[in-house]
Design goal:
By secondary structure, this protein is an all-alpha fold. The chain has 13 helices and no strands. The chain has one domain: Orthogonal Bundle (MetI-like fold). The longest helix is centred in the middle third of the chain and has 37 residues.
Length: about 325
């Protein structure tokens, strides 16, 4: 039997799983796994969630379609064809036509532009307001925090439909007033999340060190506290997008949101109510678009929550 111990080069040529006790101690310093950043690790964990990845792909496809299809299609969202009214789905009109002969697929794509734009813009505005308000409240603390949180409690106790109707009456039923109505109190959840995270992090050693070096409140919030609390903030914002889309669809369905001739998913569903029993496809496709979008964003939010939670890291 050959009892000769292999040299270092021999061990270096072997795969990782063949290293055994008794190998050269110099191999202990070898890095077995390449170094990755925090966000690379988050992406690797996110893409392992099949539902979240499928939801992201669906949203990307829908975004590309709503931008490209109205540009290349021979039909327009308001182009009427009185010889082809209320036709069912076909190769020419994949989603059929409405009461005026307008192509339903193109109108859904235009509705996707409005609904997705409102969702992303409202979420972005609520993201900024929530970070600023919640960050200041959590960092300052004391009496200022108490007053700011009582204001939040008062705003959250108001019936949302009440101020939404008032905003629509004052500013009219348009995209700007819908975004204003959705941003009136939707930032409250993000503000509470940010406040909780900032109160937890503001006594950390790196924050105290920065304060001793002369950093002011804004520097601490922007460069230290908010970046380290970004995980829960991103998850909260991800759920704001489907909430804004559904709220806009609900308002348009009630007739106080986006008005004709502009098309949103809610207004398309509202227009289909009188003829729903005779032409169910006019209601089916807008509702299906809303459901698919809501499920996709919720899957993305769940995937982000799991990927950004360090307690679930294996």
């Amino acid at each position: 039997m050959n009892n000769t111990i292999p040299d270092t080069q021999t061990y270096a040529s072997l795969p990782d799983e063949m290293f055994v006790i008794g190998a050269d101690d110099t191999l202990a310093e070898e890095i077995a796994r390449p170094s990755i950043t925090y966000w690379q690790d988050v992406w690797q964990r996110f893409r392992k969630d099949r539902l979240a990845l499928a939801g992201l792909i669906v949203i990307l496809i829908m975004t590309v379609l709503c931008i490209v299809m109205p540009l290349v299609s021979p039909y327009t969202y308001d182009g009427a064809d009185y010889l082809n009214m209320n036709s069912g789905p076909s190769l020419v009109h994949p989603c059929g036509t409405d009461q005026l002969g307008r192509d339903q697929f193109i109108r859904i794509m235009y509705g996707a532009r409005i609904s997705l734009s409102i969702g992303f813009i409202a979420a972005a505005i609520n993201f900024v307001i929530g970070i600023v308000y919640g960050g200041l409240s959590g960092y300052i603390g004391g009496r200022a925090d108490m007053v700011m949180m009582r204001i939040v409690d008062i705003l959250s106790s108001l019936p949302s439909l009440l101020y939404i109707v008032l905003i629509m009456l004052i500013f009219g039923s348009n995209v700007g007033s819908v975004i204003l109505a959705l941003c009136f109190t939707s930032w409250i959840g993000t503000a509470r999340v940010v406040r909780s995270e900032v109160m937890h992090l503001k006594h950390s050693e790196y924050v105290l060190a920065s304060r001793l070096c002369g950093a002011n409140t804004w520097h601490l919030l922007i460069h230290h506290l908010v970046p380290n609390a970004m995980g829960p903030i991103i998850v909260s914002t991800a759920f704001l997008i489907p909430n804004a889309i559904f709220s806009e669809a609900f308002l348009s369905f009630l007739g106080i949101g986006i008005q004709a001739p502009m098309a949103s998913w809610g207004s398309l569903a509202n227009a289909a109510i009188p003829v729903m029993q005779m032409y169910p496809h006019l209601m089916l496709f807008p509702v299906l678009a809303i459901c698919v979008t809501m499920f996709s964003f919720n899957f993305i939010g769940d995937g982000l929550r799991d990927a950004l939670d360090p307690r679930l890291k294996k």
